[in-house]
Amino acid sequence: MNDNVYAAPQAQLIDPQTSRPASDPFYVVSTLKFNFLFYLTMGFYSIYWFYRHWKAWKRHTGRDLWPVPRSIFSIFFVHSLFALFEKTRNPIVARKGDFWASLFVVAAIFENIASRFAGDDLGWGDLVSLGCLIPIGISLSWGQKVANSACLDSDGSRNAHFSIANILWMVFGGLFWLLVLSVLALTMLDTGVPVIQ
User: Fold this and answer.
1) To which H or E segment does residue 76 belong?
2) Long-range contacts at 68-77 (CB < 8 A, ≥ 24 apart)
3) Which pTM value belongs to this model?
């Protein structure tokens, strides 16, 4: 999709065996794999997730955009990305992406504010910050389902298997979760706050 009226027309290449465009407009990943990687890495996977979507869109459309800043500053670009998901999947469907993108933005801002209070005596800043991962993950998971559908792979089966790198990230993230939760439990026990059983 080139905005230059003087450019030669470009044909969209189709893979004859799959009847899909030669390059997917978005990053395809199964919901299960997304959730494991997102939650076990404490949300850090979302930076890579945004990067892969913007990189795929850039390659698919040939547009001049920068995937790295769009992934780092995702709260400013999530609405436009979700709109692209929906527009590509079905131009006339009702838009739900604004709700899910707004949920992501609010939860991400709230998580950022709560993390400023992380390490306080009671550990409430840590708990709120970790709790914000839930609405962030749910909103991104919704976006991934729409992106998969737009790429004609609603289950994300082309990217459902865990690679060695995925497993290493999940193991590292799982160990980090244990460390964080242990420190948080010890902090709450040390201050006399009852730990949730």
Assistant:
1) none
2) 71/47, 72/47, 74/46, 74/47, 74/50, 74/104, 74/108, 75/104, 75/105, 75/108, 75/109, 77/50
3) 0.79
Within 10 A of 28 (CB to CB), how many other CB atoms are there? 23
Q: pLDDT digit string (tens) for 59-108?
A: 999 999 999 999 999 999 999 999 999 998 877 666 788 999 999 999 99
The pair phi, psi for residue 21, each rounded to 5°, is: -55, 150
Q: How many residues does the chain have?
A: 197
Which alpha helices (DSSP H) does the chain contain, by range? 31-40, 45-61, 67-72, 78-89, 97-116, 124-131, 133-150, 164-190
Residue among 44, 43, 66 nearest 55 (CA) = 66
**SS3 per residue for 110-168:** HHHHHHHCCCCCCCHHHHHHHHCHHHHHHHHHHHHHHHHHHCCCCCCHHHCCCCHHHHH
In the numeric block, the tokens 């939860």 are attached to: 107
Burial class (CB in 10 A: 0-12, 13-18, 19+), 43: buried
* Distance separating alpha carbons of residues 27 and 11, to the nearest angstrom: 21
Task: Kindly report, residue by residue over 101-141, the tens digit of the pLDDT.
Answer: 999 999 999 998 888 876 655 567 778 888 999 999 999 99
